[in-house]
Write a structure and sequence with these properties.
heterohexamer, A: 100 residues, Alpha-Beta Plaits, four-stranded antiparallel beta sheet, 4 strands, globular, B: 316 residues, mainly alpha, 16 helices, 78% helix, binds adenosine monophosphate, binds sodium ion, membrane (chains B, C, D), Sodium-dependent bicarbonate transport family permease (chains B, C, D), transmembrane helix (chains B, C, D), transmembrane (chains B, C, D)
């Protein structure tokens, strides 16, 4: 059983961003991901609506570190200024490296 | 005496203010939304099947124009009230669009009062959702351009798709068409779901809206009394514009009241969602607090009774 | 012959016992709960609007006292049955409170049997939810104190908030008020949602409860036959207390049956939730198995028919 | 003229094709499924209570045989159409089983057309769900064995449990039994939930199915025109078999139409789920595209009207 | 793109604890978190109810190791004795360190 | 506060596999886990149905590395060939080691 190191990039963002975040992933050749519906909280900033439709999603994508970095960079520059979005990296190991 | 549905709204607000754990499941809220839009559409569609479509064209043009003009009037007023250019434009987009639930409450009030009205009024809702919203967005983008020359281009194709094929217009229009095509005989077997329970479902929806509106108190406090004044003074002004348009179109008393309500109401579902996509710089928190936390209850408690009362003076 | 809603309960139990994949979505379950509470409240409220409130005060005081006394009787009995002091007190809190669904089934049974009854009975449900629960919690805390002197203080403010402004009391009371304020004319337009489908919705709810109760078999096995004996023998005893209170209050036959049912029923929603907050040391698994897995079906199948049968002897 | 429920299906397909954000919450979809199964079962059960069960035995045997034979005919035809042995067998299992929603639409059509029919027809649905599915699975496993000798054994006990105690058979059978035991008087109080709104709920369900079917276009394109031809030509052939069986059983015209519809319909809920468990090598994507994306709309738009039209020629 | 090491603390607990866990987070100056609704299983212990209302939540909070430790310590001592609660730490890296 | 290293194994799979994955966990003496309902995407492969009932789940189990490896091995050989299933490992630290 060969284990290969990969990076897991987690994006937590307002649900309105979903289509655009996924487009960003595809643009970086990351075609597989996992999305969960979550509830979020963040220190009171300039976005203060808490209307029901104001949903939050968490997107996880496992890929090479370089890809994760490039996605993070793009998301940070395009969306972080005006949207609620948080991102972080974790180290994981996978088995079938050819799949990621 | 208040309509019973208003009491459900009050119960929701109360539950939120006392921090009760009462919540409506999100799936229920989504189901109620889908139901109301379809049911309102069906009702209007039944009426559409009875009259020549061409006769409605002047009305459609008039209400579209009305919606499109609203932000041009509202945005400058909001600037005077001290909002930033982008926030003023953003909020004006909410008033340019309409609140379907406010319309639903007005509709049941008109029926209860026995006022004669154009039964195809749901058509107005469908065509009034987008124009004012789009104008408000354009205003906001212009304001941004002025502040920062290197603003990206707005993707009008995406926005048009979002608004015109979005859930609310699609279900309203779908309901209208189904009602028009199926006619009374066709709709009869689904009456027990889409017609009879309408008002009870509306009551549940208002319970939910009360819960959300009650949660806006924090935002209201943060933005100060200003927001309350704005949210209470815009509706009567806009209602006057709506009633006058109704007068020019020669509507019946109930129709005047409904059009006044539509003009006076502010969108708090479709508009914030569209704004997040098109102008994320605009403060949607502030807009929702104003539209849902102030204008919606104002219309419910004061506005609609007032518009119904005055409508006969504007009627044909 | 059994009421049809009982058959839905049986279907749910069967589905769970044979490990079917049948599940009701959580949102549906929550929706049904909200609906039942509001609908029961509304029904009672309509009646409240017809009579002077002051006349109800003695009744309210009597049923509050009844609820508060239940744990004082039940906890010692449970100690005799071998439960630990904390678990006995915790379970007694469940019997001190009430099961809204059991009440709903009894209400439809009373109506079907044509027994005359106090139509404001839902008011009893609302005021009986909390007192016995609170007494049971106090007993449990005292038991803990005795075992371990450095127990933290109980946050009564949080607990009162949790119970009095929790979903169930809030919706019941809200429904009562709305019904009372709106009256028959006001409630008429929402009848198609809140009155007519009541029993059908109850049937769906019982299907869900059957699924949950069927899943309690494992817990029952673990705790042994004792729990089954407890869950079957407490209801008749408590029902007798309820019926006697009804007799003292001079209730009609249906009212006696309803009050007996309330006394005999054990809470399995509000009580476990409150206990988790106030006395996490008490075994809620055991309590739910007993209240929902034994007492609830017992009341459904044996208790309610029995109480209805005997009620006339206690009636005014 | 089309039935109004078909228009809801069309609205759903349209919404998906134009990529609208309209979605029905999953909990609503699950609720509608549970409702339809229970309601159909109840309807049939009411009828069962009126006739001697033994008289139904020949019918039950005949429809079970019909279902079991379908895959034996369909699988070879699908091989001819170019599908792999496993995929052909897998898809044949879908046609061997039945679509409850297609049956529901046919039932309302039969009632609307005033055709006399066997009111216990829901019993056929319940007993026809499993046999063809099982035969199709056996065919698929045989095909796998031939390709690869060291295939694991199929767990028939698990599969039987999955199918016979799965949600759909359990709710249909449960509804049938409840209806039969409770009879008209017992079911009357829950009529407002389980009988009157039936068609309206069906309309909502078809909106959802339209959304899903509209999403199958991609799969259809991938598999080519072949799949469309298959999905449109199988139903009439199977309907003929169903109608002939109805003739042999001496059914009334409406009963013939219903049995033809059952034979012609393909399962797209229970069958794919069972296949994933029993034969994961079979392409369920292809099967769903064919059953839900082609055969279901074909039956809705063309098939059911046709079967109703021709049924009298086969009737007793 | 500067990456900064942080700790992700994950709490899995019965939903009844939610308000108190969040209060604990706030008390330790952690004002942002992500909550998911999950289903859990644990070896049969003294809590054996499986009633529908018996929901489980997962709370994730990204913060400095010291803060994560302090929260974990507090949760463990206050709630672990009588409530169902599991906690674990993972190493993550974030981009805008000032936000955590 | 003693921290102990453990492995978190995450399985993302079509929901139809749930009972069998959980049986696999039990077989390896892992009696506690957390399940979330997620939405997934994967590069178009041989499984292309997107019917509503086609749900995806994420199972997380914290255990010793050896156990995680054994579970992964079993899942990979039994289910990966014909089912949608992805698995990866992460390092975590826990407090009460005796619980895992
Ligand atoms: N420190 C954190 N730990 C965990 N989740 C976070 C954290 N900060 C933000 N989030 C999540 O990310 C979402 C967006 O955050 P923000 O960009 O700060 O609005 C929030 O709704 C939270 O769900
Ligand atoms: N080893 C584990 N791996 C993953 N999740 C766990 C583990 N142990 C417990 N959990 C989760 O934590 C919750 C509370 O666990 P407990 O405190 O053991 O009742 C359970 O319901 C599970 O969801
Ligand atoms: N690289 C990835 N990153 C995150 N999630 C993934 C990844 N690949 C697959 N998944 C998830 O695992 C599920 C099964 O994947 P697959 O086995 O490729 O069909 C998908 O539905 C996704 O939710
Ligand atoms: Na407006
Ligand atoms: Na009681
Ligand atoms: Na068939």
């Amino acid at each position: 059983m060969n284990k290969h190191p990969k990076t897991k990039l987690t994006l937590v963002a307002e649900a309105a961003l979903e289509p655009r975040l996924l487009a960003e992933l595809r643009r970086h050749q990351a075609h597989a991901w996992t999305i969960s519906e979550v509830r979020g909280a963040f220190p009171e900033g300039d976005r203060d609506g808490d209307w029901e439709a104001d949903r939050t999603i968490e997107v996880k994508v496992i890929c090479d570190t370089a890809v994760a970095d490039a996605i993070a960079q793009a998301v940070l520059s395009k969306y972080a200024p005006h949207y609620s979005v948080v991102l972080y990296f974790s180290d994981v190991t996978v088995l079938r490296a050819e799949r990621y | 005496m208040f309509d019973v549905v208003v009491l459900f709204f009050a119960l929701g607000v109360f539950a939120r203010l006392v921090k009760s754990d009462l919540r409506l499941p999100e799936a229920l809220y989504e189901t109620l939304t889908i139901y109301l839009l379809l049911a309102i559409g069906l009702k209007g569609g039944l009426e559409l099947s009875r009259q020549p479509l061409m006769d409605l064209l002047p009305q459609v043009l008039a209400v579209v124009t009305l919606g499109a003009l609203v932000p041009l009037v509202v945005a400058p007023l909001l600037r005077l009230a001290g909002l930033s250019p982008v926030d003023a434009a953003g909020l004006s987009a909410h008033y340019g669009s309409v609140s379907v639930v406010t319309f639903a409450v007005a509709l049941t009030a008109v029926q209860r009062a026995g006022l004669p009205h154009e039964a195809h009024a749901p058509l107005w809702v469908a065509v009034m959702e987008a124009p004012g919203l789009v104008v408000g967005i354009v205003l906001a983008r212009l304001a941004l351009k002025r502040a920062d020359a290197k603003q990206g281009r707005i993707r009008w194709d995406l926005l048009a798709h979002e608004v015109l094929l979005g859930k609310s217009v699609l279900l309203l229009m779908g309901g209208l068409l189904i009602g028009a095509v199926a006619g009374d005989a066709g709709v009869a077997p689904i009456k027990a779901v889409f017609i009879d329970p309408f008002k009870g479902v509306l009551a549940l929806f208002l319970l939910e809206l009360g819960l959300v509106a009650g949660g806006q108190l924090g935002a209201l406090k943060r933005h100060g009394l200003k927001l309350v004044l704005v949210g209470c003074s815009l509706p009567p002004v806009l209602a006057l514009a709506g009633a006058s348009t109704g007068h020019l179109l020669g509507l019946q008393a109930g129709g005047v009241a409904l059009l006044a309500t539509l003009a006076a109401s502010a969108s708090y579902i479709a508009a914030p969602a569209a704004l997040r996509v098109a102008v994320p710089q605009a403060n949607t928190g502030l807009a929702i607090a104003c539209a849902l936390g102030v204008t919606f209850p104002f219309n419910l408690l004061v506005g609609i009774p007032l518009y119904l009362h005055l409508a006969p003076h504007f009627a044909r």
